[in-house]
Structures are given as C-alpha cells and as structure tokens.
Amino acid sequence: MRRVITVEKEMKCLREMIAMVFKKQEQLITENKKLREKCDKLDNKVKMNNEMKKILAEIKRENSALKGKCENYKLELQGLQDKLNTSVGTGKGKHNW
C-alpha cells in the first residue's frame, strides 16, 4: 500500500513538473517571437540607415562639386569686376550717349 501511495505522489509530482515545463516553454516561445519581431524591426532600421548613408554620401559629392563651381564663378566674377574697375578708372568704360 505504501508503494502505491509513493508512486501516486511521484506521478503527481511528475505531472506538476511537466505542467511547469510546458508553461515555461510557452513563455519562452512567446518571448522568442517578440525578440524575432524586434530583430526584424531593427534589421529594417539598419537597412534604412544604410540607404540614408548612401544618399548622404551622394549629396556630399554633389555639394562638393557645386562648391567647386561656385568658387570658379566667384573667381570669374572677381576677374570681371577687376576688368570693369580698370576700364572705368582709365576711362575706357565710359560711353558718350
């Protein structure tokens, strides 16, 4: 009789342990799912950031080229202003209308 009671207690204990294991398994599955979703979101953000870095690099290249053109235009304008000032100073720039 004692053996039967001991076996019943062991079975009850095993059932409780199995129930706890299943409960923990469900918790881990849920946590894993949330973590995978979070990873997917982060992966998408990384892709967006990389794309934005490429766009920014292209804008920087274009900006650099435009700065060079702007500097050239400034130099040309300064040269034209110098010519105009020289012409006005010598009287060559005056017109008799």
Describe the structure.
This protein is mostly helical and 97 residues long. It has 1 helix and no strands.
Please provide a brief summary of the model.
By secondary structure, this protein is an all-alpha fold. It is 92% helix and 0% strand.
Helicity, as a percent range: over 70%
Q: What is the averaged pLDDT score?
A: 91
By DSSP (H or I, 4+ residues per run), the number of helices equals 1
- What structural class do you assign from the helix and strand content? mainly alpha
Low-pLDDT parts are none
**Overall shape:** rod-shaped
Q: What's the count of strands?
A: 0
User: SSE order in H/E notation?
Assistant: H
The portion of residues forming beta strands comes to under 5%
Largest sheet: none
Termini separation (Å)? 135 Å
Using only C-alpha atoms, the radius of gyration works out to: 41 Å
